[in-house]
Amino acid sequence: MDYRQFGRSGLTVPVLSFGTGTFGGTNEFFQRWGQTDVAEATRMVDLCLDSGVNFFDTADIYSGGASEEILGQALKGKRDRALISTKATFRFNDDLNQVGSSRYHLVRACEASLKRLGTDHIDVYFMHGFDALTPVDETLRALDDLTRAGKIGYIGASNFSGWQLMKALATSERHGLARYVAYQGYYSLIGRHYEWELMPLGIDQGVGLMVWSPLGWGRLTGKIRRGQANQSGRIAAGGAEGGPPVSDEYLFGVVDALDAVAAETGKTVAQVALNWLLTRPTVCNIVVGARTEEQLKQNLGALGWTLTAEQVARLDAASHETPIYPYWHQKGFDERNPKPTVW
Fold it and tell me: Are the C-beta atoms of 24 and 67 separated by less than 8 Å?
C-alpha cells in the first residue's frame, strides 16, 4: 500500500479508501448500489485492513444511517486500526432543522453518527454539500467546537464550488477556526472538470483531493464497450441515476484508450483508470467501492505499478475536453496565470 499526506495536515492516509455506500441498501436508491449485510461487510473490512486499506468512508444519508451502523459493527474490536470519514448536510429526516450546515443540525448529526458508528470520534468529517443559507462562520465555529471537543479529528468539504471552498478557507484563517484540509469530489477519466478551478485552488491552498466515483459512475469498469450491451453491474441495475451525462462517443473513445493501455500493461480497464488518477496533482486518496470481495480485490490491483508518461499522455488526450469560460481564456495568459500541466 502507498500512503500520502492528507492535504495540509499531519495525517497520513492510504491512497485507497473503501467506500461503504453499498452497505445496507435499505431504500430503493441505495439498493441499486448494493445490499451488503454485516457478515459480508466484516469480511470486506478485514480484507481491507489486511491489505493496508485502513480508511473507510461513509455518510449519514447512506441507506438512512444503515451504512454507518454496519460499518461500526464490522469494525468492532478493530476501531483503533481504522480511519473513518463520514458526512453531514443533506436532509436526514422530516425535521425542518435536520438539514444543512447550521450549528443546530451539525451538533446533532455528529452525535447521531458517533452513536451509529459505535465510536467516540470521527477522523474526518465532511460537509456533504454547501449550505448557502447558513453563515459560513456559523458552520466553521460549530465544526471547530466539535474538533476541540475531540469528536472530530479533521474537517473536509465535498461538492463545493471553488468560490465556496475559498470563502470557507478565508473565514477559517480570519477567525482562527478549524480548516478544511481535504476536498471530496468527483474526478475520473470521463469527468475532468475538477481540473479547471478546484485543482488550481487545491494546489494553491494545500487542500488534498479525496476522489469519489473514480470509475465514472461505473462506466469505466470494463463492462461498457463500443457495440456491447451492458448486462450486469451497477449501471444495468439503474445505479447510475444522478450521475453526470456522458455522450456515447466520448465514453467509447476513452474506453478504447483504456483498453489499449490495459492490453499493454496486463491490467484491467478499471485498474488503469484508477492508476491514472494517482498520477494527478492534489489527489491524496481514492474512494473505491465494491459489491463483492472479488471486486474489492480487483480494485486493489490498481496499486504496485506505474503507467508510463506516454500512456498517461494518451489517456489525457482521449479524455480531454475544452474548458468552459473563463478557463479557456486564461490559458492564453499562462505567462502570468499558469495552470496545472494536466490541462
Answer: yes
